[in-house]
Amino acid sequence: MNMDKNTLWQTALTKIEFTISRPNFLTWFQETGIVNIENNTVTICAPNVFVKEWLQNKYHKIIIHNLREIIPEIKDVNYIIGKAEGPSFAIFFKNHPKKKAKSIHFDHLENEDMSIKEFILDPETNLNPRYTFNNFVVGSFNELANAAAQSIINNPGTNYNPLFIYGGVGLGKTHLIQAIGNKLLEKNPGYKVRYVPSEKYMIEIVDALKNQEMNALKEKYRTVDLLIMDDIQFIARTEKMQEEFFHTFNALYEKNKQIIISSDRPPHAIATMEERLRSRFEGGMIADVGLPDIETRVTILKTKLETKKVSVPEDVIIYIAEKIKNNIRELEGALNKVIVNAELSNMPINIETAKKIITNYIASPKKFTSAKKIIKAVSEFYDINERDLINHSRKKDMVKPRQIAMYLMREELKSSYPSIGDKFGGRDHTTAIHSCEKIVQELKINSELEEEIRAIKDKILLIP
Ligand code: ADP
Ligand code: MG
After folding, report:
1. Which of 87, 319, 447, 455 is the most core-located residue (most Cβ within 10 A)?
2. Which of 111, 165, 171 to mutate to test the pocket of ligand 1 (most atoms within 8 A of CB)?
3. Ligand 1 atom nearest residue 167's Cα
């Protein structure tokens, strides 16, 4: 290897920069460096344990992939805590002004809903004023979660503490938990509310450590009346973050301050969630958000229409509601597509054109599932290595994820058993049959598994 370590890291960083978002890049890579390269193993230093763990658990694949593109012989990457040296990095980051890093909104990392982004978030609370109960439809799918929310609004910090809400993508978790914050603020303007998606919370911690503002950050989180932590599943990837959150959680809990948490799955299904956090969550109220039925979907569409100055025929509304069942964001998206199309073509909305548009909308390529996506989603969900999942790794935790991946290939792609076996390191087709059977049987008695598989299917849809 004749490239020096600083040049290597700088080259890798220019590549990595294009694969992740700007605030994430700045937070997690700014103070990193290569400390040495020995026996084809690269050692990377991180400024503190939070960054080290996150690089290890979240970015390892990206890092090793990019390093290998520059030097194919690289075998492995280690992480240590340490200071990056060499002036090249300072220059590197100076050329890339840290613009906007602090003001980026995280509430809709995967949301295309522009109408929400137009709103300016209150920097104190982070709440989006658009999320209220006035435009929130309640049906049997979210009845329990909504009832808990109402109880909290009447008596925060008492009965349902913490409130843990879980459910699939686009089913209104963020809307509901922010609506609680907005409502409590409206009732009591002096109330201190803080809404934060867990990914943003982690970035704040790392920033605070860098700027030696950790005490101020702790103070900020431990003196609120209501803390709303969205999508907590991300935090479970690192122990140190969980620990930090645990202390904040306890500080608030002991003062009877209300804590609300959302996740894509129930606490017990977050494999890497620390036991003490899990049992804290389970000591409160856990409510799921399921799928809205057809009547509710129609009501949701009609509610959305109230704020738009167009009339959409009843049969079109029903058609959309019948076709889009699993995601309220997509339900709204489909309605918007139909409306925009009519505006652009200057034609009234009718069922024939609506059918064409919706058919295209449903079949849009972003939804195509593939074996690759299934493997990626399962690995990400269980936080395991894709290679271990596919190959004959004997690690005991691989068995169930592998069976689920095989099952999903059968169910979602209608793959043949021999081809499923092939995809998993040339296993025999009888293994594939056995695996799928096992999951089918298990699903009959295990509703938690059903929950997990649903969450994995959601994940598949999010993979580009
Ligand atoms: P999640 O956080 O569960 O992924 P969101 O809260 O972001 O879902 O909701 C996705 C979109 O659907 C948002 O635009 C939200 O306003 C809308 N939405 C979700 N649930 C409802 C509901 N019950 N009534 C009206 N709109 C809803
Ligand atoms: Mg959300």
Report:
1. 455
2. 171
3. 3
In the chain, DSSP finds a helix count (H) and a strand count (E) of: 22, 8
d(CA 91, CA 68): 24
Q: Are strands 258-263 and 33-38 parallel, antiparallel or unpaired?
A: unpaired
105 phi/psi in degrees, rounded to 5: -90, 140
What are the start-end ranges of the E strands in 252-352?
258-263, 285-289
Please determine, for residue 374, whether its predicted confidence score (pLDDT) is greater than 50.
yes
CA of 172 to the centre of ligand 1 (A): 3
The token duo for 83 is 């200071």
Contact indicator for 228, 195 with CB cutoff of 8 Å: yes
Pick 18 or 289 by higher pLDDT: 289
Cα 42 from Cα 80, distance rounded (Å): 11
- What digits encode the pLDDT tens for the residues 173-227? 999 999 999 999 999 989 999 999 998 899 899 889 888 999 999 999 999 999 9
Q: Looking at the CA of residue 131, tell me the nearest atom of ligand 1.
A: 16
Is pLDDT above 50 for 130?
yes
Ligand 1 contact via 137 beta carbon (within 6 Å): yes
DSSP secondary structure, 380-392, as one string: HHHT--HHHHHTT
For ligand 1, what atom is nearest to the CA of residue 328?
Answer: 12
* Alpha carbon nearest to ligand 1 atom 14, residue: 329
Report how far ligand 2's centroid is from the alpha carbon of 83 (Å).
36
Neighbours of ion ligand 2 (CB under 5 A): 173-174
| pLDDT at 364 (0 to 100) | 62
How wide is the angle at C-alpha 237 spanned by C-alphas 463 and 241, nearest 5°? 135
Alpha-carbon separation of residue 38 from 7, 42, 43, 60 (angstroms): 16, 7, 8, 18
Distances 284 to 243, 261, 303 between C-alpha atoms, Å: 19, 11, 32
The rounded distance, in Å, linking the Cα atoms of 360 and 379 is 30
Dihedral angle of Cα 28, 33, 36, 42, to the nearest 10 degrees: 40
Q: What is the pTM of this model?
A: 0.72
Cα 198 from Cα 336, distance rounded (Å): 30
